From TrEMBL:
Domain of life: Bacteria
Name of this chain's protein: Lysine exporter LysO family protein
Listed GO MF terms: L-lysine efflux transmembrane transporter activity
Spans traversing the lipid bilayer: 29-49, 61-83, 103-126, 133-151, 171-191, 236-259, 280-302
Pfam families: Lys_export (PF03956)
Species of provenance: Marinobacter adhaerens
Length: 303
């Protein structure tokens, strides 16, 4: 099982404890994070490509990923809709002068993680010999990534107090967590894993570079691939539904994006929901970015 699951959280909190003021250094960290994400995903694909009986597992993985994605989507949207009925949030009227978001560009960017995974998979399956240290390299890279992300969160010019006291963002994040864990509980007999492992799978909240490696390290490359694909699908689905539902239910649009609401899907939220949605989305995404590794670490440590 996953030994030292909680230890992997230390780099995130260590990074968040450090304050930096050098803008050039923060820019370098930004590009390093981007490179590490694709490197980690390529390593995840490499592990999949070198997995014994890969072709026999693909159909099963597709079914497991579909079940997880559908269950989480339904549970999240129902939970967020109930939250909207309880605490309605009205977005600003979209100002056309701000310009429209380049959806094709965003969708293509959302496909880049899949391409990194596919490149690693093909290299592992057809080209490279078996590499026994892949898991250790991926884990070390992930710890470095978490440290750098902690630095980014601390030095993003955000007030932690304001984020934690943004009641709308807090309720959206907690609703997404609760509905995701409920969906996980319902999936236990479907996925055939211990309850704590299924709840770990349900706790990615869109952070695919984290969930793919952490779950893969704990449960094997096949489950790592399922976790990765599930969280990539969350990001892609969020891009599609945000313009459709943010006018009638901002909580659903912001919440389903999960951890990505503070970065990747934020431009879509801003252009369709107005400025009033931005602090809520950042608060929700920020909280989920911290809760995801904590919950995965806790659940996996129970095995």
């Amino acid at each position: 099982m996953f030994t030292g699951a909680l230890l992997i959280l230390a780099p995130l909190f260590l990074g968040f404890a450090l304050s930096l003021e050098n803008r050039r250094l923060m820019t370098a960290i930004h590009y390093t994070v981007q490179g590490l994400v694709y490197f980690i995903l390529a390593l995840l694909g490499l592990g999949l490509g070198q997995m014994e009986g890969l072709t026999d597992h693909l159909g099963t993985m597709a079914g497991q990923m579909t079940a997880l994605t559908v269950a989480l989507f339904v549970a999240n949207m129902v939970g967020l809709w109930l939250l909207h009925r309880w605490q309605p949030m009205t977005p600003e009227q979209w100002d056309e002068s701000t310009g429209s978001t380049g959806y094709m560009r965003l969708f293509m960017a959302a496909l880049k993680p899949l391409l990194a995974l596919l490149a690693g998979l093909l290299a592992g399956y057809f080209l490279l010999p078996r590499m026994p240290l892949v898991d250790q390299i991926a884990t070390g890279s992930l710890m470095l990534l978490l440290f750098l992300i902690g630095l980014q969160l601390r030095n993003a010019g955000l007030s932690l107090r304001k984020l934690l006291t943004n009641t709308q963002g807090l309720w959206i994040a907690l609703t997404l967590v609760a509905s995701s864990l409920l969906a996980g509980m319902l999936l236990i007999p479907v996925l055939g894993l211990p309850w704590h492992d299924v709840l770990a799978l349900a706790s990615g909240f869109g952070w695919y570079s984290l969930s793919g490696i952490v779950i893969g390290d704990a449960l094997g490359p096949a489950w790592g691939g399922v976790a990765f694909l599930n969280d990539v699908m969350r990001e892609i689905i969020a891009l599609a539904i945000i313009p459709l539902v943010i006018g009638s239910s901002p909580a659903m649009a912001i919440g389903y994006g999960g951890a990505t609401s503070m970065d990747f899907t934020l431009p879509v939220i801003r252009s369709n929901g107005g400025l009033s949605c931005v602090p809520v989305a950042i608060a929700s995404g920020f909280l989920l970015s911290f809760l995801s590794p904590v919950l995965m670490g806790v659940f996996l440590s129970l095995g």
